[in-house]
Specification:
By secondary structure, this protein is α+β, with helices and mostly antiparallel strands. It has five domains: about 30 residues; about 325 residues, Glycoside hydrolase, family 3, N-terminal domain (TIM Barrel), CATH 3.20.20.300; about 220 residues, Rossmann fold, CATH 3.40.50.1700; about 150 residues, Jelly Rolls (Sandwich); about 120 residues, Immunoglobulin-like, CATH 2.60.40.10. Helices cover about 25% and strands about 25% of the residues. The strands form ten sheets. Strands 12, 13, 14, 16, 18, 19 and 21 form a seven-stranded antiparallel β-sheet that branches. α6 packs parallel to α8. The chain is globular, with a radius of gyration of 29 Å.
């Protein structure tokens, strides 16, 4: 009785408390004015609540109706690290398309998938990392040196091209609704950031003022003022002594005061730590946190901002400084519609079915087709679909990583270049394949051994179905009920940052209570292995994280440990043809990437090098697929192989393992077509002198194999153009850590490149004629109309990328050799001619940064307007005088 009275007495109190919370949330519920709403929310927060919102993993504030939010998301060339998503070509490849309209279309598709995935996550009650709407893309740093491992993430070496492609990407991501942002794009890394990767946490970049304003900042300014980008990410490095993520000059003076930026600034991950740990600008986390906020960094990727409460107590910062940043972050979330009913937000209606849709797959293939650059062709391309025998050779021919680059999602059906060739050839053509060589010296590729084909796997004895029985569990120990049981044709899976059930759940093919987490799950495969021939087999398991393999009840491989990257372990076994062997493969995923493969080498298999030469001798033509992958070039990696260090390269030549094989293939006398997958320039001078055809496919995305084959067999006329200079050797480059632009990129390089910026061949020919300049003498702010006729004089339809460059004829100050100031992709049928027009303005297109006046200026005098097919293939010239 007493207990009943106490409970009854508590009920009114609890109800009143709940009512008060609801009323407080209602008082601030969705006013039409986002600014007022953001300010109101901040005014109701405690200091501790304000501080909690300034880090990427922001907790909920239930009494204000603010849900938890994780700000960290990536979409460099597709929604990344969030499970299944369409993977478009890596950013450097998309830049090679020189196609602004297509870039916006791709970005719009990416943001469609981002929105659909986000709302699906929210429906499941998931608000974790890589599940939000604030994306840390694009990377618009200038790819000033081909040794930089992250150059693949950029739009190349030219400020103008970077700005044009970046603006389109931002507009495609953020959408055009007058009230809501589709997603938030982030221009990164502000500023003067392009390696070396191992030094970024303590490096101080010191460019000249002219290089700063003429090379490193223009793309950021364009994205802020033209693209209206909603977020900017500060870089790790210092700029002239100031942390780029806590810089009065960069973040407050240039970005906000001069450019009018009204969004929020986020630090790169751990960059606030670097203020006191790496750069040692201050000595404590409290001082670093206070400096970051006071100097314009609103949001930290990290946890040092937890020290802001202590910094307040120490008088290092005022609460009003914190209020400004919190208000900006709340405003961003309001503009995304996060506090509004989903029916009011148009972008919330995008169905999950857009994710990896057929339309997006076609778009990925189109972008890959337009990105492919034909560097050289002596008539061997295009290949006939009916050629009798083709040998496809090389470490990148059948490797999914060559499609992905870095910061990628998980494609449903990635098409390697080998698969693309097989898809493209006629029914009478035989395609031989041999890997031939490792990617680089000293690296055992964990994916070198092919997976065991389903023909040799059975789920049980007798006439049991082909494949293995897979049981999928929550947790690492294969315990409890299986959440999913199915027959897997082979064991060859890359779930990356997702889980085996992510897509099944989103498509409604699995109930929510059977979902596996993205981390911390395990799988057991059981069945039988039926070898085709007798002899010694090498069984190989590749995995990230732990795995173990039993054959006929005997443990033959045991790697039940966590690991930072995929690795392979092998066991040699004598197996008899016609006999069935019981197999049991167990696997667990800890955190981050998830991958598992069961493979083998058959008895009597030749050495890879010899196998490749044998295939070449039996073929009519050889397609060698080599270059790099994101396993050896990228962001601050633990990589140390000849020519590679810490994510960067120390040499820009083709890795020695591949070079040896390529020369041996050439020595067979068979024509060899070199296909390079890469995120940066590779010095292939020997190949240029000796091989009949060279193609750059970049990291071409999930449809990359089909797109490369489309070009090789002439279904598509190549039209990509180099967004970077290909040098002959590393000896042509200045020191990597020197941020002076002298001697770098087509704008300042005085030597002879292997292939110039803007270069790209076609299977047809284009003729330029009748260059016209509207006015020969103009004032600084007058428009200069430029037009030229371009005609397809060949037998195939094709796209020409018409490029316009400007140079000062007799400059009073050092000036670039030439600068891209316009481009247009034109589709022409055989015999078709079209007039292509541009408009230049001297105040922007002929100008330089004047250090004394701290502003851009135009010198009087003559300027040459150049029109052509690349920076090294100028077809027509005319002069303009500025008075």
């Amino acid at each position: 009785m007493t207990r009943r009275v106490v409970l009854c007495a508590l009920l009114p109190s609890l109800a009143a408390s709940a009512s008060a919370r609801a009323q407080e949330a209602a008082r601030v519920a969705r006013p039409d004015d986002f600014e007022a709403h953001a300010a109101d929310l901040v005014s109701r927060m405690t200091v501790e609540e304000k501080v909690s919102q300034l880090m990427n993993d922001a907790p909920a504030i239930p009494r204000l109706g603010i849900p938890a939010y994780e700000w960290w998301n990536e979409c460099l060339h597709g929604v990344a690290r969030a499970g299944a998503a369409t993977v478009f070509p890596q950013a450097i490849g998309m830049a090679a398309s020189f196609d602004k309209a297509l870039m916006r279309e791709v970005a719009s598709a990416i943001s469609d998938e981002a929105r659909a995935k986000h709302h699906e996550f929210v429906r499941r009650g998931q608000r974790g990392r890589y599940q939000g709407l604030t994306f840390w893309s694009p990377n618009i740093n200038i790819f000033r040196d081909p040794r930089w491992g992250r150059g693949q993430e950029t739009y190349g070496e030219d400020p103008y091209l970077t700005a044009r492609m970046g603006v389109e990407f931002v507009k495609g991501l953020q959408g055009d609704d007058p009230r809501y942002l589709k997603v938030i794009a982030t221009a990164k890394h502000f500023a003067v950031h392009s390696g070396p990767e191992p030094d970024r946490h303590h490096f101080d970049a010191r460019p000249s003022e002219r290089d700063l304003f003429e090379t490193y900042l223009p793309a950021f300014r364009a994205l802020v003022q033209e693209g209206r980008v909603a977020s900017v990410m500060g870089a790790y490095n210092r700029l002239n002594g100031e942390s780029a993520s806590a810089s009065q000059r960069l973040l407050l003076d240039i970005l906000r005061r001069d450019w009018g930026f009204d969004g929020y600034v986020v630090s790169d991950c751990g960059a606030i730590d670097d203020i006191y740990k790496g750069h040692r600008i201050v000595s404590t986390p409290e001082a670093a946190a206070a400096l970051g906020v006071r100097k314009g960094c609103d949001l930290e990727c990290g946890s040092t901002y937890r020290s802001l409460t202590a910094a307040l107590a120490q008088g290092l910062i005022g609460e009003k400084d914190i209020d400004v940043s919190v208000r900006r972050l709340m405003l961003a979330r309001l503009k995304l519609g996060m506090f509004d009913p989903s029916e009011r937000v148009p972008y919330a209606q995008i169905p999950y079915s857009v994710n990896q849709s057929a339309d997006h797959d076609r778009l990925a293939r189109l972008m890959a087709q337009e990105s492919i650059v034909l560097l050289k062709n002596e008539g061997v391309l295009p290949l006939s679909r009916d050629v009798k025998t083709i040998a496809v050779v090389g470490p990148n021919a059948d490797e999914v990583m060559t499609l992905l680059g870095n910061y990628y999602g998980t494609p449903a059906r990635p098409v390697t270049i080998l698969a693309g060739v097989r898809n493209a050839v006629g029914p009478g053509t035989k395609v031989l394949y041999a890997r031939g060589a490792d990617l680089v010296e000293g690296r055992e590729d964990p994916r070198a051994v092919p997976s065991i084909d389903t023909a040799y796997l059975r789920t049980g004895a007798g006439d049991a179905p082909a494949g293995l029985r897979g049981e999928y569990f929550r947790g690492r120990e294969l315990q409890g009920p299986a959440m999913l049981t199915r027959i897997d044709a082979t064991v060859d899976f890359r779930w990356d940052r997702g889980s085996p059930t992510s897509d099944l759940l989103a498509r409604g093919e699995l109930p929510p209570d059977h979902a596996l987490p993205d981390d911390d799950f395990s799988v057991r495969w059981t069945g039988q292995l039926r070898p085709p021939v007798s002899g010694r087999y090498e069984l190989t398991v590749t995995g990230d994280d732990g795995f173990r393999l039993d054959v006929d009840g005997r443990r033959v491989i045991d790697e039940w440990t966590t690991t930072s990257r995929a690795r392979a372990k092998s066991a040699s076994l004598d197996l008899d043809a016609g006999r069935a062997y019981d197999v049991r493969l167990e696997y667990f995923e800890s955190i981050r990437d998830a991958e598992i493969r069961l493979g083998w080498r058959l008895p009597g298999a030749k050495e890879p090098f010899d196998e490749a030469l044998e295939a070449a001798r039996a073929a009519d033509v050889v397609v060698f697929v080599g270059g790099l992958t994101g396993d050896v070039e990228g962001e601050e990696m633990r990589v140390s192989y000849p020519g590679f260090a810490g994510g960067d390269r120390t040499d820009i030549g083709l890795p020695a393992t591949q070079d040896r094989l390529l020369r041996a293939l050439h020595a067979t006398g068979k024509p060899v077509v070199l296909v390079l997958t890469t995120g940066s320039a590779i010095a292939v001078e020997w190949a240029h002198q000796n091989l009949p055809a060279i193609v750059v496919g970049w990291y071409p995305g999930q449809e990359g194999g089909n797109a490369v084959a489309d070009v090789l067999f002439g279904q598509v006329n190549p039209s990509g153009r180099l967004p970077i200079t290909f040098y002959k050797s590393v000896g042509q480059l200045p020191p990597f850590a020197d941020y002076d632009m002298k001697g770098r990129t087509y704008r300042y390089f005085e030597g002879e490149p292997l292939y110039p910026f803007g270069h790209g061949l076609s299977y047809t020919r284009f003729e330029y004629s009748d260059l016209r300049i509207g006015k020969g003498i103009v004032g600084p702010r007058e428009g200069v109309d430029v037009s030229v006729s371009v005609k397809n004089t060949g037998a195939r339809a094709g796209d020409e990328v018409v490029q316009i460059y400007v140079r000062a004829v007799a400059p009073k100050l050092p000036m670039p050799r030439k600068q891209l100031r316009g481009f247009d992709r034109v589709s022409l049928k055989p015999g078709e001619e079209r007039r292509v027009a541009f408009r230049l303005t001297p105040a922007t297109d002929f100008s330089h940064y004047d250090v004394s006046s701290k502003a851009f200026a135009v010198d009087r005098g003559e300027y040459e307007v150049q029109v052509g097919a690349s920076s090294g293939d100028i077809r027509l010239r005319a002069r303009v005088r500025v008075q």
